[in-house]
């Protein structure tokens, strides 16, 4: 076992242990006493249900993690990567097509093996707690659409990356970085109008409604050009509520789940929208994109260094080196950096959420924002008392009690 195998195995072990510890601490921190802040929204039965939901989701997540880790280790040490490489090479498809088929088969196999877990999560756990609205037909169509988009959009991008590192000796990482950056920006531009409508219907908010007038008045107040506020049929798949901001330029839009509109007062909805506008005004989307692009450049630079390392291929019992297998193996070698970056991005994301909350509460109203957060927590059966270590590793948003406390403290 060489140094590359040791690093990858150590990373897998550390990641697994950290997540197990955080899950354990999170379950131990579940407080049977309903926090006073939520006594006007929750009843004891609903609060107890939210705790059962957290426990069941956590235990199912542990089972999924154990299965995925075990599957990877068995495939790795049984020589699965070499076996697949021999099979695909025997078809003599050419270097780029061989790479596409090799990586595609690994991704497809993983999706198939994870399918039972996805089905159980959707049609058993989510159904049990009253969230699931997905029909078997919608579930299958989502899989087919996702696969089609992956082939249509991801296939050419992957082919380009394989070509750069196969045929260009110097600066291949720069070409790959440029291609991925352009692709990311392109997706951001077309996603709201071309990709997302493949999965959901987006209807413009009624121009004549009182809610639309309140939103227009608020947007004028904060000098926000309203390209579009849309209602998304989130109830097609789940009763959970949400809102989000996507796109940029003339294609930017704010989407409100129909479940959100059904369950909230108009002032609460404007407050939620003010939060999303806050992300735009604070340039969080652009900042995140910039960080992501920079991180991608670092990753491709490191890839160019390790891609031709025999030791990396020896760690996976490979007899021949290739760009396509190197991409897979480097992804696993890169995991320690990715883990650290992920924690950093979670911290940054939580900071951004506090900033967006502050923007909403200072430019609109505090109480509607607080009421909206409370109702969202109840409707989504959120864990009101997560352990700080679990939050540190996993939360992109601050715990709701921390958000409410921060909003109350704003001037």
TrEMBL record:
Binding-site residues, Zn(2+): 275, 279, 353
GO molecular function: metal ion binding; metalloendopeptidase activity
Keywords, comma-separated and alphabetical: Endoplasmic reticulum, Hydrolase, Membrane, Metal-binding, Metalloprotease, Protease, Transmembrane, Transmembrane helix, Zinc
Gene Ontology biological process: CAAX-box protein processing
Transmembrane segment boundaries: 6-25, 60-79, 99-125, 146-168, 174-195, 289-309, 321-344
CDD domains associated with the record: M48A_Zmpste24p_like (cd07343)
Record-stated family: Belongs to the peptidase M48 family.
The protein's name in its UniProt record: Peptidase M48
Taxonomic source organism: Fodinibius salipaludis
């Amino acid at each position: 076992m060489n140094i590359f195998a040791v690093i990858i195995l150590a990373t897998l072990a550390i990641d697994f242990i950290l997540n197990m510890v955080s899950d354990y601490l999170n379950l131990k921190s579940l407080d049977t006493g309903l926090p006073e802040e939520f006594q006007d929204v929750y009843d004891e039965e609903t609060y107890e249900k939210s705790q059962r939901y957290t426990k069941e989701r956590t235990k199912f997540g542990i089972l999924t993690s154990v299965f995925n880790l075990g599957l990877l280790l068995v495939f790795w040490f049984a020589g699965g990567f070499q076996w697949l490489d021999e099979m695909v090479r025997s078809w003599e498809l050419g270097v780029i097509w061989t790479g596409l088929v090799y990586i595609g088969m690994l991704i497809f196999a993983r999706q198939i093996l994870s399918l039972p877990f996805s089905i159980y999560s959707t049609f058993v756990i989510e159904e049990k707690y009253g969230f699931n609205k997905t029909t078997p037909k919608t579930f299958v169509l989502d899989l087919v659409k996702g696969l089609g988009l992956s082939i249509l959009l991801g296939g050419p991008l992957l082919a380009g990356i394989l070509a750069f590192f196969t045929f260009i000796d110097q600066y291949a990482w720069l070409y790959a970085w440029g291609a991925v950056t352009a692709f990311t920006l392109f997706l951001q531009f077309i996603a709201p109008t071309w990709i997302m409508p493949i999965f959901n219907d987006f209807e413009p908010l009624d121009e004549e409604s009182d809610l639309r007038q309140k939103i227009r008045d608020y947007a004028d107040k904060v000098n926000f050009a309203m390209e579009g506020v849309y209602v998304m049929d989130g109830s097609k798949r789940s009763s959970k509520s949400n809102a989000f901001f996507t796109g940029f330029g003339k294609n930017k839009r704010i989407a409100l789940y129909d479940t959100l509109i059904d369950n909230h007062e108009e002032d609460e909805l404007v407050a939620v929208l003010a939060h999303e506008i806050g992300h735009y005004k604070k340039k969080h989307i652009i900042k995140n994109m910039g960080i992501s692009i920079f991180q991608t450049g670092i990753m491709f630079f490191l890839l160019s260094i390790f891609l031709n390392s025999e030791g990396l291929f020896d760690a996976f019992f490979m007899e021949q080196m290739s760009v396509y297998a190197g991409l897979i193996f480097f992804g696993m070698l890169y995991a320690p950096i990715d883990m650290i970056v992920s924690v950093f991005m979670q911290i940054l994301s939580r900071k951004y959420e506090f900033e967006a909350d502050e923007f909403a509460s200072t430019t609109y109203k505090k109480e509607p924002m607080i009421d909206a957060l409370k109702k969202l927590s109840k409707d989504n059966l959120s864990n009101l008392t997560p352990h700080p270590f679990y939050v540190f590793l996993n939360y992109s948003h601050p715990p709701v009690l921390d958000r409410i406390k921060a909003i109350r403290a704003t001037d």
